[in-house]
Amino acid sequence: MKYILLALLLSAGVRAQAQVNVKLGHLKTYVGDSVRVCGKVEGGTYLPNANNSPTLINFGMAYPDQLLTVVIFGEHRSLFEGTPETDWVGKTICVTGKVELYRQKPQIVVRSVQQIQIQQ
Fold it and tell me: Would you place residue 120 in the very low, low, confident or very high pLDDT band (cuts 50, 70, 90)?
């Protein structure tokens, strides 16, 4: 009986840590949660002279109507091959990370290549 209870507790812990798959249009309801979301990249920009030198990747629609912005700060940009703001345009990409709001728009900050999966 002890082992059954232990197995149930362990499996519940594994399920609680699993990533939630979310559609682009529903991200605002997951602010603060870690999710996995997939979508088509519609554009991007690199701002080398801005604070933290961000690369901004827009999903779902072009800026300013994007459904998600993926942010890669300058200190992590070198982890990615090529130029994500142009190389990823038109591709379907899945991103894993914590949903935040910036100016009332969902964003996910990416700090590792493991957070990005290019589908096509």
Answer: low
Distance CA 8, CA 28 (A): 32
* Distance between CA atoms of residues 49 and 93, nearest Å: 26
The yes-or-no verdict on residue 56 having pLDDT over 60 is yes
Could you tell me the domains of the chain?
A: 19-118 (2.40.50.140)
DSSP code per residue over 2-50: HHHHHHHHHHHHHHHTSPEEE-GGGGGGGTTSEEEEEEEEEEEEE-TTS
Q: Binning pLDDT at 50, 70 and 90, where does residue 23 land? A: very high
